[in-house]
Structure to design on (210 residues):
């Protein structure tokens, strides 16, 4: 799709020099921490647990991550980068902005059924970091701002100059709202029913607001 949506191209894992800092030990630590943080909670998992499961020495850990907070930020930036890549792929493969939004919605619904799914990583982290000034919270808000902005741009293209044109920003916020609800309630209300309801909600935004 020759979408007009401008997706961020920066690498959130890049160093100050503009090049990602990579090493086998760093990736092993980050992969282990990401799995544990997502499955069990960030504050519930200590550095010693990560070192034991990676495995790695404390010196190796602090050479790559000066603090646990740095590791948490890297974890969330990794999730952010994966989400951006998925959205970008959906937009580029879609025939129209509406199909791009459907593809983004389908990816969300499909994710609910993944065996390893435990909810939205950002919503889970936000519950553990309520301080709006915390660096972790800032990464969460940056991700959500990007997501809503991208959806708004797509809805703007979908609605176009229709005489029944809806408000693209409102539609994007509605999308995020039902996405948050689906990701939070799927394990309680049933993956299939929640996924179907979410897909209907996305289709409703595309067909009823313009």
């Amino acid at each position: 799709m020759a979408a007009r949506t401008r997706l961020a191209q920066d690498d959130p894992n890049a160093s100050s020099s503009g090049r990602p800092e990579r090493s086998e030990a760093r990736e092993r630590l980050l992969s282990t921490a990401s799995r544990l943080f997502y499955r069990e909670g960030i504050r519930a998992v200590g550095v010693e647990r990560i070192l034991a499961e990676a495995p790695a020495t404390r010196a190796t850990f602090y050479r790559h991550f000066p603090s646990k907070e740095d590791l948490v930020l890297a974890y969330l930036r990794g999730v952010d980068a994966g989400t951006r890549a998925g959205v970008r792929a959906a937009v580029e493969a879609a025939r129209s902005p509406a199909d791009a939004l459907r593809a983004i919605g389908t990816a969300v619904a499909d994710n609910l059924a993944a065996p390893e799914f435990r909810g939205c990583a950002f919503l889970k982290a936000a519950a553990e970091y309520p301080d709006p000034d915390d660096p972790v919270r800032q990464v969460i808000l940056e991700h959500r701002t990007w997501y809503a902005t991208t959806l708004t741009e797509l809805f703007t293209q979908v609605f176009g100059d229709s005489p029944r044109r809806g408000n693209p920003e409102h539609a994007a916020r509605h999308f995020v709202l039902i996405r948050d609800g689906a990701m939070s309630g799927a394990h309680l209300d049933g993956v299939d029913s929640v996924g179907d309801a979410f897909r209907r909600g996305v289709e409703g935004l595309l067909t009823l607001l313009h």
Residues 2-20 have pLDDT under 50 and may be disordered. The chain has nine helices and no strands. The radius of gyration is 19 Å. Residues 4 and 153 are 8 Å apart (CA to CA).
